[in-house]
Design brief:
It is built from eight helices and six strands; from the N terminus they run αββαααββααββαα. Helix 1 runs antiparallel to helix 3, helix 1 runs parallel beside helix 4 and helix 3 packs across helix 6. Strand 1 and strand 2 form a beta hairpin. The protein has a two-stranded antiparallel ribbon. Strands 3-4 form a two-stranded antiparallel sheet. It has a two-stranded antiparallel ribbon with strand order 5-6. The radius of gyration is 17 Å and the shape is globular.
């Protein structure tokens, strides 16, 4: 456990920071949390490269537990329009994190013997796509209103042009696409710190 403690601390910090920053808007389609949350994939990939899939999964599970705790706390804090975190958001957040991160670990492990950039890039792209699709669908899709009937998410279904310029879609789809685009961009940018951190922690596998 001691050897992966820095990864555990980093993952917990990313999860806590993202849960706080998601409350603050950045422009029309994003929150500040969209820029910190993708760092979780970098943490997972570094742990996977340096220590292997098993330790990486342990770091992910601890991050999941921290996320659940943050969500439970959020459901008890009342904001202007109700709880800061609804049960649908809590469910979507936890499910998306666990599924996406575990998929990231599996894909990375499968591709670890290839070029150094292949495993982190492919695993993060797939994981990020899963994360966005699961979270926004569970949290805001009108088709899943039965998950929390008392939670009015009709605002998320408002029909608007995609990102203000494309075809007309529910608002939550634009939010999801914007989030996904940030994740994909950061997945590419994260290759440089991934390479540097791995070289520092384990030069023989960099």
């Amino acid at each position: 456990m001691t050897r992966i403690l820095p990864g555990v601390i980093a993952m917990a910090a990313v999860v806590v920071a993202s849960n706080i920053l998601v409350q603050f808007l950045f422009g029309q389609w994003l929150t500040w949390g969209a820029f910190t949350y993708p760092i979780a994939f970098l943490v997972t990939d570094v742990m996977n490269r340096v220590y292997g899939a098993g330790p990486a999964r342990r770091v992910v599970f601890i991050g999941f537990v921290v996320g659940v705790i943050c969500s439970l706390i959020g459901t008890q804090i009342m904001g202007e329009f109700g709880p800061l975190v609804t049960w649908r958001i809590a469910l979507g957040s936890g499910l998306a994190f666990l599924v996406a991160q575990m998929m990231d670990v599996a894909i990375f492990d499968r591709l670890r013997s290839g070029r150094w950039w292949r495993a982190p890039l492919a695993s993060t792209l797939v994981g990020s796509t899963l994360d966005t699709a699961i979270f926004f669908t569970v949290a805001f899709s009108g088709a899943l209103v039965f998950l929390e009937p008392a939670n009015d998410v009709s605002w998320a279904g408002e029909a608007l042009p995609l990102l203000g310029v494309g075809p007309v879609v529910p608002l939550w789809v634009s939010l999801a696409v914007a989030d996904w685009m940030v994740k994909l961009s950061l997945a590419i940018l994260a290759l440089l710190p991934f390479r540097a951190i791995v070289a520092k922690l384990s030069p023989q596998v960099a």
